[in-house]
Amino acid sequence: MKESIQRVGGAMSGMVIPNIGAFIAWGLITALYIPTGWLPNEDLSSMVGPMIVTLLPLLLGYTGGKMVHGHRGGVIGAVVTTAIIVATSSPQFLGAMVMGPLAAWIMKQVDDRVQDSVPEGFEMLYDNFSLGILGWGLAVVAYNVISPVLDAITNALGNGAAWLVDSGLVPLADIPIEVAKVLFLNNAVNQGVLTPLGAAESAEAGQSIYFLLETNPGPGLGLLLAYWFAGTGMWKESAPGSIIIHFFGGIHEIYFPYVLGHPIMIIAMWAGGISADLWFVATGAGLVGPPSPGSIFAYIAMLPKGGAFPVLAGVAIATAASAVVGVILLRARPIKETDAGVDAVIESNIPTV
Amino acid sequence: MSSINGAEVKKICLACEAGAGSSLMVKNGLIKKAKKAGLDVEIVHAPATQIPADSDIVVCHTGLAAAAKAAAPENAVVIQFMMFMNDPALKKLITDLSEGNEITST
Q1: Measured on CA atoms in the order B31, B37, B38, B40, is the torsion positive or negative?
Q2: Does residue A73 sit at the B interface (CB-CB below 8 Å)?
Q3: B15-64 pLDDT tens trace
């Protein structure tokens, strides 16, 4: 179960993560130059739309294709993604993540069957025109047949996501999110699902709460502070160094062992995550672009103008809640440290999946 | 169970889920340790699903071991660690490499 989620989520996040830099460039341009931004500039803000609607899905489609069939797969993935982009009205991250790999897979099937039998001297002719003709065909099919389906699915997902926010149920999403994170599904959840949802929402509304749900460095900081104050042995000693890497470097993986090694600490994570999410919903908090990695510096860089307090206060609330609950838990149920040290803790606590 | 003599190891791959964050961090830590020990070994990082086929040793967190084992080259030794800093498994790996000990999957 966990492996198959990791595989699908890994494929989705694998298309997004190498392109996060472009998302951040878009986020910075948006935060600065849109009419409500820090330095409104009509000329420069004309980049915002084309980047979110065209550039980012194209990059995902290219990367998704490349994962399946190298550069040729990437190229045909980008061609077919273009058809989806122009045929629909919403930013087509989902379409790119479906069509990029699919087009590349079809190209691969053709290449596998034909490439070996191409006569000497005709290789370049074959390479260029097989991709060109297949790209033409798939683009037309994608435009006419597939794009209405993807458009409907994207709208349904977007409406569902908006409904979750409006109905105030978003904080409940924290329960599975915190568990998925420490099982190393953090990228699958964030870059695979929440970042595309957030980018679509932010393109319309100027900011999105979906960027805050998985990336909030507060709960992890609170957990590590709790270990620093109330932990023992190696767990206590390693906490300050881990805090720097987690909170400032944004590498959340560093805190996962502190939960995996003492699973009851997931309650501290929920305490921080849910209370912060309640606050985010109540104050209408959001970020302009994806804060990746989930460092406090990335948070500050993606703040919308006038929206700094709700976001930063939410991080502080999460930190305080996780730290307090974490200390209580560590006092009530101290972590076992046997003579064998870490190894024994690992063996007794890591669930074998 | 795969095993390899520490003296024969040429390439070590650090694997994490995305191949972007934690594996890069652990890799840099391991490179520093290897340099200090005077080891001549190539150390790279990758997503757990895209481990280079010529890796002799794959290092990953216990939580990703199953995925890494499925994607690792057949003869590669898979070393698991628990803590991202100062894990005993990584210290032992450096010792085994410099002393030419037999290294087996964990």
Answers
A1: negative
A2: no
A3: 887 767 777 778 888 888 888 878 778 888 888 777 888 888 888 888 77
Query: Residue A139: its pLDDT value, please?
Result: 95
Range of the domain at A104: 47-167
pLDDT tier for residue A6 given thresholds of 50, 70 and 90:
low
Chain B residues near residue A18 by CB distance under 8 angstroms: 20
* Per-residue pLDDT tens digits for A130-171: 999 999 999 999 999 998 888 888 778 777 777 777 787 888
Flag whether B1 is in a domain. no
What residues of B act catalytically? Answer: 16
Here the CATH number for the domain that contains residue B16 is: 3.40.50.2300
Domain count, chain B: 1
Q: How many domains does chain A have?
A: 2
Give pLDDT tens digits for A318-333.
999 999 999 999 998 8
Considering the domain boundaries, does residue A42 fall inside one?
A: no
Chain B hits for A353, Cβ within 8 Å: 66
Confirm or reject contact between A292 and chain B (CB < 8 A). no
Separation of alpha carbons A258 and A78, rounded Å: 41
Q: 3-state DSSP call for residue A34?
A: coil
Residues from chain A contacting residue B21 (CB–CB below 8 Å)? 250-251, 253, 293
| Contact A343/B at CB under 8 A | yes
Q: Do A197 and A342 reside in the same domain of the chain? A: yes
Q: In what helix (H) or strand (E) does residue B15 lie, and over which residues does it extend?
A: strand B11-16
Q: Supply A112's token pair.
A: 């596998």
- Contact flag B16-A253 (C-beta cutoff 8 Å): yes
Half-sphere exposure of residue A333: CA atoms within 13 angstroms, side-chain side: 10
Question: CA gyration radius for chain B?
Answer: 12
Looking at CA atoms only, how far is residue A103 from chain B in angstroms? 21
**Contact flag A353-B25 (C-beta cutoff 8 Å):** no
| Domain end (from A145, A167, A189) | A167
Chain B interface, mutation test: which of A4, A251, A345, A352, most B Cβ atoms within 10 Å?
Answer: A251
Instruction: Find the residue in B nearest to A180 (Cα).
Output: B63
Examine the domain organization and report whether A155 and A193 are in the same domain. no
Question: Is there a single domain that holds both residue A63 and residue A197?
Answer: no
A247 is written with which tokens? 């909170």
Give contacts of B67 with chain A, Cβ < 8 Å.
3, 6-7, 10
Q: Are residues A127 and A163 in the same domain?
A: yes
* pTM across the whole model: 0.76
Q: Say yes or no to pLDDT of A78 above 60.
A: yes
Residues paired with B77 in a beta bridge:
B57
What is the rounded CA–CA span in Å between residue A60 and residue A19?
7
Q: State the pLDDT confidence band at A347, using cuts at 50, 70 and 90.
A: very low
